[in-house]
Amino acid sequence: AICGHGCKYGECMGPNQCKCFPGFTGKTCNQDLNECGLKPRPCEHRCMNTHGSYKCYCLNGYMLMPDGTCASSRTCAMVNCQYGCEEVQGEVQCLCPSGGLQLGPNGRTCIDIDECSTGKAVCSYNRRCVNTFGSYYCKCQLGYELKYVSGRYDCVDVNECVTNTHRCNLHAECLNTEGSFKCKCKQGYRGNGFDCA
Q: What is the mean pLDDT of the chain?
């Protein structure tokens, strides 16, 4: 077989007939084939034509696999989440373990939501809200204590006069009130109950 015009990047197969090497085209195999323009496209994300071949590139956050596809390079291990994460459609999202926490500005650490100040907490009238990391609890109001009464726990008024936790004067009477107490100076004494003369 003789090819008078020659076969630059190929072999002469018959009279003036060239068989081009992969990546080349044309009558004399002297033109580079643009593989990036072929259908189906040889690369998943980005393709760059080179002399006689092509190169595949992936978008940011992805890495090139041996088969030419692009896989997410952002794995849970690489993102370094505080409590763990999930991978959804190639995207990594850090998670917080409770509804009382939210993702911080860096997208990796969890910060506490203060349910007591945001009004998300629901405590009954005789209980007050105490914020904790990731949650909250309802504590008895001051002047009440938690007691097991008729089959359930309830906040019951503390009788400061009986428990002797009042600060009444020695010459005053202690009067228990709901959630608190009052002091009244005894007969023959004057004052506010804390100071009697």
A: 87
